[in-house]
Each structure stands twice: as structure tokens, then as C-alpha cells.
């Protein structure tokens, strides 16, 4: 019994020592955890874990991942479209501010595309570049001036006759209205004429201001003509150097593609202008002959108007044909007007289905919907000049975009790594049945055969294809 208290004392001391060592180790572990964690991670009390019966709460996803894929694509495309729309708006504002200069330069491009083949032919005959350019420009401007003078001369020469015919047509229309089943009385017709006269008399100031505005327009037209003439002269003489200077403004990475698209765009524009001139000349000749044989006055000026309006696709043919029909209706009566309408429709059908596909070709073929929309947009932006240049601009843009797309695909294919293995087998070209195999298709050991073998000069290898 004397030994029991000593044993219990030693046991209590050992338990006390073990407890102190456990507390020391716990303090060291807490100190290490506190040094690794940030200020926001240090806590004084341990948070107990949630009970097992508590419902699980899903973590919140990333906001980008929460947006649907289609909406993200639409947003990415939307802000890029807004940037493009803003760029186009600024560009259109700049073009509107210098509209006269832009239209004059575009007209110079069209005239240059029409006259440049003549310069090339004269250069081939041995004329220097300056002399060939001067001869072509002088002859072209003289011909255009003579055409304009001829139209004005014909209109002024037949103006008295046309006014008499118009007066007779109005009297005939008045008699037809009196005898028609519409029960129109002569007093009503006189009231309409009096109202028209009073309207003209009360709006004299507006008519005068319109006349002054017309004088301003004439000054702008003459300025544009002078700009177009000088631009045409320099484009004919130094067009190649101007194009090389423009290429230096293009970034170096895009320069090869633009350099390849430029000549193709110019060929498209030249083909369009030349084809349009030929088609317009055929329309003017045949419709003018029909009008002449139907004894309609001013047949030649009407033919010239038909030639000029043919440069406005779709709309120009309708306007010029309607003008011819109205003149024939007023001067010769309903029967002659119907005959003129048949002539116009027949010639325009032949033009649309035979002449344009044959003369213009596929290079400048534009869908009719694109023609209508481009002519309408060009007319709204820049009037008659915009309607004239809209379709060639669309044709040239179509050619440039098609070439750049093909060029980009070819560049990406050339820069991509060479296929190998199963991929090479899938993309390998298939040889046509009956065609001789190429040297690249032959095995490596067969390419080393002698002259009589397939890879030699006498075989069916690559040498035969060369």
C-alpha cells in the first residue's frame, strides 16, 4: 500500500507533461497556419462544418460563362458592325462635302476606261506616250462636244414644230375629254387652265429662284467637266505611276493582294464601259430608226437621249422609252405611241437577253436586285451622277472582293503545314482515269529506273507531261 501513492503521482505527472506537449504542438501548428494565410484568412474561432442534413448550395458561375454562346457572338459582331457603320457614316459625310470632286474623278475614270484602248493601239503603232495621249484625249473630247452640240441644235431647231404639235395635241386631248364618258365640261377644263396660270403667276419668285439655282448648277457642272477633263488627261498619260503611288499607301502585308486586285478591277471597269457604250449605241440606232420611220418629230435628239440614258441601268431605259412614247403620243396620236412602245419594248428585250450577256460577259454580270438597289442608293446619295456610277462601282467591288477572297484562301493554304499520314491521304489529289501518273505519285525505287522505265524520258512519268 505504501507504493500506490508514488505510482499515482508519477502517472499524474506524465499525463500533465503529455498535455503540455500537445498544447505546445497545437500552438506551433496555429502559428504556422497564421503565417501562411493572409490577414483576411486569419480567424480567431473555428467555424464548425455544416451538418450533413443541410442542403448543398451550388457555387456561382462566372458571369461570362452564364451568358449564352449565341448572345456573346451577337455582341461581338454587334460592336464591330457599329464601328463599321460609324466609319461608313464618316466616309459618306466626307464624300458629300466634296461630292463635285468625287463625281468628276469617277467620271474621269469611266472616260479613261473608254479611251485607254485607243492610247494602247496608238502606242503599238509607234507614237510616243505623250502624243498618243494628246491625240486620244482631243478626239474623245471633240466627239463628246459634237454630240452635245448636235443634241442642243436639234432640240432648238425643232422646238417651234414641237410646240405647235404639243398645242395641237392639247386641243385633241381637250376634245377627247369633252366627248369622253367622264362628263368633263369645257368650263371645268378652262378652270384647270386658269388655275395653272394663276399658280405660275403667284410663284414667280420661286421660279426665279429656281432659275438662279439652275445657273449655280450650270456653273458646278462646268467646273466638274473641267475637273473631269484634266483628270482624264493625267490618268491617260500617267495612270501606271499613279497606281504605283497608291500601292505605296497600302500596308506592306496587304500590298500583294491589292496589287493583284487592281488590274482585275480595271479590266472589269473597261469591259463595263465598252460594253455599255456598244449596247447604248445599238439601242439608240434601232429605236431611233423606228421613231424616224413612224414619222415622230425630233427622232435624232430622242435617239441621242436614249443613248445617254442607257448609261443608267434599268431606270434610264424606262425614262428614255417613256419620253419617246410621250412625244409620239402628243404629236402623232395613240396609234403611233403604241407602235413606238412596241419598238422600245422589243429592242430592250433583245438588249437584256442577248446583247448584254454576250457583250458584257460574266466579268461584269451583276444580279438585277443588286442593280436596282445600287441605282436607287446612288440616286439618293448623289442624284443622276450617283445612279450612273453605282453599277460599275458594284461590279468592280464584286471583282475585288472575289479576288481577295481567293487570294486569302490560297495564302492560308500555302502557309499551312504540309499534310502527312492519314490527312495527306485524304487531301491527296485523285488522278483522272486514263491519265499518266506524275513522278510524285510513283514509288521512290521506281523513280531510279533507267531511260526505258516509267520515270525516264521514254516512260510515262513527269517528263512526258513536260
From TrEMBL:
The keyword Transport applies. It comes from the Bacteria. One of its GO terms (cellular component) is plasma membrane. It is a multi-pass membrane protein. Residues 450-466 have a biased composition (Gly residues). Keywords: Cell membrane, Membrane, Transmembrane, Transmembrane helix, Transport. Its main location: membrane. The keyword Transport applies. The chain crosses the membrane at residues 131-152, 215-237, 271-294, 300-326, 333-350, 370-396. Residues 24-57, 412-466 are annotated as: Disordered. It is found in: Cell membrane. GO terms for biological process: transmembrane transport. Belongs to the autoinducer-2 exporter (AI-2E) (TC 2.A.86) family. This is AI-2E family transporter.
Amino acid at each position: 500500500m505504501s507504493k500506490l501513492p508514488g505510482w499515482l503521482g508519477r502517472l499524474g505527472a506524465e499525463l500533465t507533461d503529455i498535455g503540455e506537449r500537445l498544447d505546445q504542438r497545437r500552438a506551433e501548428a496555429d502559428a504556422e497556419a497564421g503565417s501562411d494565410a493572409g490577414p483576411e484568412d486569419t480567424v480567431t474561432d473555428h467555424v464548425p462544418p455544416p451538418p450533413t442534413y443541410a442542403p448543398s448550395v451550388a457555387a456561382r458561375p462566372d458571369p461570362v460563362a452564364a451568358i449564352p454562346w449565341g448572345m456573346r457572338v451577337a455582341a461581338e459582331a454587334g460592336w464591330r458592325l457599329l464601328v463599321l457603320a460609324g466609319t461608313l457614316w464618316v466616309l459618306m459625310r466626307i464624300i458629300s462635302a466634296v461630292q463635285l470632286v468625287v463625281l468628276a474623278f469617277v467620271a474621269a475614270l469611266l472616260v479613261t476606261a473608254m479611251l485607254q484602248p485607243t492610247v494602247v493601239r496608238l502606242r503599238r503603232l509607234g507614237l510616243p506616250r505623250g502624243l498618243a495621249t494628246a491625240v486620244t484625249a482631243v478626239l474623245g473630247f471633240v466627239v463628246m462636244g459634237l454630240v452635245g452640240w448636235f443634241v442642243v441644235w436639234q432640240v432648238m431647231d425643232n422646238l417651234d414644230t414641237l410646240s405647235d404639235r404639243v398645242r395641237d395635241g392639247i386641243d385633241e386631248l381637250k376634245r377627247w375629254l369633252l366627248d369622253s364618258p367622264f362628263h368633263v365640261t369645257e368650263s371645268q377644263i378652262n378652270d384647270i387652265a386658269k388655275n395653272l396660270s394663276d399658280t405660275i403667276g403667284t410663284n414667280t419668285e420661286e421660279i426665279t429662284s429656281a432659275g438662279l439655282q439652275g445657273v449655280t448648277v450650270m456653273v458646278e457642272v462646268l467646273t466638274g467637266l473641267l475637273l473631269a477633263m484634266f483628270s482624264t488627261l493625267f490618268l491617260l498619260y500617267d495612270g501606271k505611276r499613279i497606281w504605283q503611288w497608291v500601292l505605296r499607301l497600302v500596308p506592306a502585308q496587304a500590298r500583294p493582294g491589292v496589287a493583284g486586285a487592281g488590274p482585275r478591277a480595271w479590266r472589269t471597269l473597261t469591259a463595263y464601259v465598252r460594253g455599255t457604250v456598244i449596247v447604248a449605241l445599238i439601242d439608240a440606232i434601232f429605236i431611233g430608226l423606228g421613231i424616224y420611220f413612224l414619222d415622230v418629230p425630233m427622232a435624232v435628239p430622242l435617239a441621242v437621249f436614249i443613248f445617254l440614258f442607257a448609261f443608267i441601268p434599268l431606270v434610264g431605259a424606262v425614262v428614255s422609252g417613256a419620253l419617246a412614247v410621250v412625244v409620239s403620243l402628243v404629236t402623232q396620236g395613240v396609234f403611233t405611241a403604241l407602235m413606238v412602245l412596241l419598238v422600245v419594248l422589243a429592242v430592250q428585250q433583245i438588249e437584256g437577253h442577248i446583247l448584254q450577256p454576250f457583250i458584257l460577259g460574266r466579268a461584269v454580270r451583276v444580279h438585277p436586285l443588286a442593280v436596282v438597289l445600287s441605282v436607287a442608293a446612288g440616286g439618293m446619295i448623289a442624284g443622276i451622277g450617283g445612279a450612273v456610277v453605282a453599277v460599275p462601282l458594284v461590279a468592280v467591288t464584286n471583282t475585288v472582293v472575289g479576288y481577295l477572297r481567293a487570294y486569302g484562301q490560297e495564302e492560308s493554304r500555302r502557309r499551312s503545314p504540309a499534310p502527312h499520314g492519314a490527312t495527306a491521304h485524304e487531301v491527296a489529289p485523285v488522278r483522272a482515269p486514263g491519265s499518266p501518273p506524275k513522278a510524285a505519285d510513283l514509288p521512290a525505287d521506281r523513280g531510279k529506273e533507267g531511260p526505258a522505265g516509267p520515270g525516264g524520258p521514254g516512260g510515262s512519268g513527269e517528263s512526258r507531261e513536260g
